[in-house]
Amino acid sequence: MTGPLSGVRIVEMAGLGPVPFAAMWFTDMGADVIRVDRPNRRDDDLAGVEPALLRRGRRSIGIDLKQPDGAAIVLDLVAGADAIVEGFRPGVMERLGLGPDECLARNGSLVYGRMTGWGQDGPWASMAGHDIDYLALSGMLHAIGPASQPVPPLNLVGDYGGGAMMLIGGVLAGILAARAGGGGCVVDAAMVDGAAYLGSVQFALMGEGWWQPRRQSNLLDGGAPFYRTYETADGEHMAVGALEPQFYAALLHGLGLQDEDLPHQHSVSDWPVLHRRFAEVFRSRTRAEWTEVFAGTDACVAPVLSMAEAPDHPHNVARGMFVSVDGRSLRPAATPRFDGREAAAVPEADTARAAEILRELGYSDDRVADLERSGAVT
After folding, report:
1. The dihedral of CA 363, 366, 372, 378: what is its sign?
2. For the segment 206-234, what is each residue's pLDDT rounded down to a tens digit?
């Protein structure tokens, strides 16, 4: 593997959502990630639940963790790893004999990354949940959407923003500390915590009286007429983010409006008046026409593209933001970039290499054959 994380080895306990997303990112950055899967996993079992995209680029080994040999193999894996990441409910890894105590006993420098919805403790720790639930309890779901009702922002804020990205940061911080001689550690990454942390600025503004707990009443939630979307003549939309005075002036110029004929930008009581005026003007032209009007300006106005349209936008094409994986479909390229170079290509899906992995751990051919015959590994 090549990349900034080349030389880092991570054991991934197969799961859904943020853990495989984090493992995909580690792999994209050059880490050697070994995925511990359930035995005889079939890809069609995961159809519509976990895309092959999230399993790309890493080797996998199917292990029956209910057999005595299963946990022993995982402990052998973590003995030579920098980190392990898992997303089971609290207590599951301990019952399997693979909790932090057992793993850190085998490798005192191991970073043990734990990803849950509610965290390792607290009265809701053992409850099931999904992204929308963690957002709800964090206060973030209430803040997103039109005034009439909250709208879940896909599963980006809980699963991947508050979940996977916080797990990634925690694991990397732990690895740095371990390599500096600080020893291993346990990383407790909870999606409810991460979602709230992503809202730190909004919580701070609310505490200072600058943020109202009502949707579409604030600067960044669609309440401000200069920070929201507007429908165009063809039923498409333009996104407007003209916060600063100079950008707001560029917005008015593009719309053909005069500042002296309008209420002041930050007169909150007059925001409905400004909104209606902007909406009226935006409906007079198509999205393509408005895109041309604002191209090259600092008005902070952009066309709202669909997922089908985004890969073909000239800016995204110029940056190589999407890559072809099979000659037909496009996927976002790995990010961030280093030294201006494109991310290294990686295989589309994980590859089952149980025997290869076991031999790297020092298992003899006879031992590998025995484990395969018993069904402990596949």
Report:
1. positive
2. 999 999 999 999 999 999 999 999 999 99
Rounded-to-integer distance, Cα 220 and Cα 202, Å: 9
Q: What separation in angstroms does the CA of 31 have from each of 96, 168, 264, 347?
A: 26, 12, 53, 14
Determine the Cα–Cα distance for residues 58 and 332; give it in Å rounded to an integer: 18
Annotation marks residue 159 as catalytic: yes
Are 197 and 162 in contact by the 8 Å Cβ rule? The answer is: yes
Instruction: Report cis status (omega within 30 of 0) of the bond before 336.
Output: yes
Q: Under the phi-then-psi rule, with left for phi > 0, alpha for psi from -120 to 50, and beta for the rest, what region is 256?
A: left
Of the candidates 45, 256, 17, the one whose C-alpha atom is nearest the C-alpha of residue 132 is: 17
Task: Render pLDDT for 258-269 as a digit per residue (tens, 0 to 9).
Answer: 999 999 999 999
Catalytic residue among 159, 193, 221, 350: 159
Q: Which residues pair with 190 in a beta bridge?
A: 116
pLDDT tens-place string over residues 104-152: 999 999 999 999 999 999 999 999 999 999 999 999 999 999 999 999 9
Torsion, Cα of 234, 236, 241, 246 (10° steps)? -20
User: What are the residues facing 115 on neighbouring strands?
Assistant: 189
Quote the DSSP letter at residue 132: H
For residue 51, is pLDDT > 80? Answer: no
HEC secondary structure over 286-311: CHHHHHHHHCCCCCCEEECCCCCCHH
Instruction: Please tell me which residue in 76, 130, 253, 313 is annotated as part of the active site.
Output: 130
Residue 262 CA to residue 227 CA, distance in Å, equals 17
What mean pLDDT is predicted for residues 246-252? 98
| Residue 343 pLDDT exceeds 90 | no
Contact 59, 353 (CB under 8 A): yes
CA 216 – CA 145 distance, rounded (Å): 8
Burial 6-22 (b: 16+ CB within 10 A, else e): eebbbbbbbbebbbbbb
Pairing of strands 83-86, 185-190: unpaired
Copy the structure tokens of residue 50: 């976990």
Decide: 24 and 85 in contact? Cβ < 8 Å. Answer: no
Distance separating alpha carbons of residues 323 and 345, to the nearest angstrom: 9
Is 121 assigned a catalytic role? no
